[in-house]
From TrEMBL:
Official protein name in the record: PRTRC genetic system protein E
Domain of life: Bacteria
Biased composition (Polar residues): 164-177
Residues of the ParB-related ThiF-related cassette protein E domain: 1-174
Basic and acidic residues bias spans: 94-138, 147-163
Upper lineage: Bacteria, Pseudomonadati, Bacteroidota, Sphingobacteriia, Sphingobacteriales
UniProt cross-references to InterPro entries, sorted A to Z: PRTRC_protein-E
Disordered: annotated segments: 94-177
Coiled coil: none
Length: 177
């Protein structure tokens, strides 16, 4: 007897393990149940795919077995491969999302830190201004290139302070207020 059963299974081009169960039914019939298992597929929805069940006599199954199973088994195999590819893409998206969130958090912290430094420097300059130490206050005002978003405010404040300590008197010496 020369059967080509396994050659035909090999030609089906499926991914996973094909589980085949054969049971005797009533009146010389057979019940064949096939289910494809793909452990590489991480999606639990694969467990919802029902087995393919065929009933018939031995002669009927010999004639039409591969005609009946080839298309559905290949479709299930492709579905599981696609599900796994989808799961991997989703993992990558989650990683990218986490990275983006981490980057956004880091940038936010850097901006908050920079704003805090700016506020502290301006507050120190204001304190020195109130004490009448205009030159020291002018020195404490931050550099506009370090804080480009506040450059106009910084230039304005430096001008105000320099006007205070460089006001000449009638006698040719600088006058401090």
């Amino acid at each position: 007897m020369n059967a080509n059963f396994f050659n035909q299974i090999a030609q089906m081009d499926i991914t996973g393990d094909l589980h085949l169960t054969i049971a005797k039914g009533a009146e010389n019939s057979l019940i064949v149940s096939l289910i494809l298992q793909n452990e590489a597929c991480g999606d639990n929805a694969k467990n919802l795919i029902p087995p393919l069940n065929l009933r018939g006599t031995a002669e009927e199954l010999d004639e039409g077995f591969f005609l009946k199973i080839t298309e559905p088994i290949q479709a299930v195999s492709g579905l599981m491969v696609d599900m796994e590819a989808f799961m991997k893409q989703m993992e990558e998206v989650k990683k990218q999302s986490a990275m983006e969130k981490e980057n956004a958090d880091r940038e936010k912290k850097e901006k908050e830190s920079k704003d805090k430094k700016f506020r502290e420097a301006m507050q120190k300059a204001d304190e020195l201004d109130k004490e009448g130490k205009f030159r020291e206050a002018w020195m404490k005002v931050p550099n506009p290139t370090d804080f480009p978003e506040h450059s106009e405010t910084i230039r304005k404040r430096k001008t105000e302070l320099s006007d205070k300590f460089s006001t000449p008197s009638l006698f040719g010496t600088e006058q401090s207020v």
